[in-house]
Fold:
Amino acid sequence: MPFLASVMLAAALTAAAEPKQIYQMSPQEAGAFIAEVRRAEPDLRKRIATIGRRNIGQPYKLNLLGEFPYELHDTLPMYSLSASDCLVFAEHTYAMALSSSWEEFFWTLQRIRYKDGVIGVASRNHYMEVDWNINNHWLLSDASSGASYAMRVDRAQFLKVQHHVQRDIPVQDTQESYLPVERALREFGTLGEGDMVEVVSVRKGQHMVTHVGLVVLDAQGARHFLHSSAPEVREEPFEAFIARTQARADNGLAGFKFMRLNEAIVVPPSAPQPRPGA
Structure:
């Protein structure tokens, strides 16, 4: 066999022997992977880390998910395997870790993405502080303290501008707790595998959560930050993430919210899906 052909064959055999990352899988392959991880690893925290790491290298892309074809305000689908943004990565990882089949994953994903699991752009958990964290209190608990910020949320304006959808929703004012950077650095070591870290930044004079990621442990037990950020999903020391963020002139980094994974999680049932227009 010519040398070049033998090299190409060896490379092909090596690639075939390496397990696929999730973003390289079909839904059928992802479903089989979910079932196998659930069978092989009974510990939820370890499943979260295993599943999250099987997406390292997944391309980062904004504006990935929507309600299509259930709603027609855009053409974005209800799940994505091929790419992620920070929240899509976290939601898909949690939903897969809590499931034992593709069908259960897809249902659980919608339970996490939407208030009471009711699908719709207006019921989607758009704001981490006042939507996602509150509506997923069965999954994670806020363990942040040390400082606070005021936040005003105008969901009606957001839906009108971003999605061209009219909804009569009152403006909400809230006070949110968080950990300034130095305190977060000290307390990061208290987090467990599978916990969520939410990055609090200042944008146009207002504090808000702008990024999220998961806590994982390396072989020596050191905690790392696993997250989807341009150009792809990566795992890195928390200190390295902070240094890289602070190196940007317009970073606006204020601190973090630490969300601890609850013990003995039971995914609650979804509310009935209302008939549109009823």
Remarks:
- The mean pLDDT is 94.
- The chain has nine helices and eight strands.
- The chain has one domain: 21-261.
- Residues 75 and 155 are 21 Å apart (CA to CA).
